[in-house]
Amino acid sequence: MLLDVSDDGRGFDPAALPHSPAGVRGHGLPAMRARLRQLGGTLTLESTPGEGTVLSAAVPLESPR
C-alpha cells in the first residue's frame, strides 16, 4: 500500500533535518519512520526550498516474515 501526501508550500532542505539515533522515540518524521519500519515499510521525503514537499509512506500488504 502506498500513500503520497504533497503540498505546494514553501518546502525546506531535508538534509538540514536533525536525525534521531536508533531507538529514540519522538514526534513527527522520526515517529513516522519508526512506525513504518515496525510495519516493514518505508517513508521517503522529497522537498526543495520554495517548491513544496512530498511524503510517501509504503507498507507491504503482507507482514514481513
Task: Tell me about this structure.
With 65 residues, this protein is α+β, with helices and mostly antiparallel strands. 15% of the residues lie in helices and 31% in strands. It contains 1 helix and 3 strands; from the N terminus they run βαββ. A 3-stranded antiparallel sheet has the order 1-3-2, with helices on one face. A hairpin with a 3-residue loop joins strand 2 (42-48) and strand 3 (52-58). The radius of gyration is 13 Å and the shape is globular. The two termini are 17 Å apart.
Brief write-up:
The chain is of the alpha+beta class and 65 residues long. It is 15% helix and 31% strand.
Which strands sit side by side, in order, in the main sheet?
1-3-2
Low-confidence stretches: none
Major β-sheet annotation: 3 strands, antiparallel
Mean pLDDT: 85
Structural class: alpha+beta
- Number of strand elements: 3
Tally of alpha and pi helices: 1
Strand content: 25-35%
SSE order in H/E notation?
Answer: EHEE
What portion of residues is helical? 10-25%
Distance between the termini: 17 Å
Computed Rg: 13 Å
Shape: globular
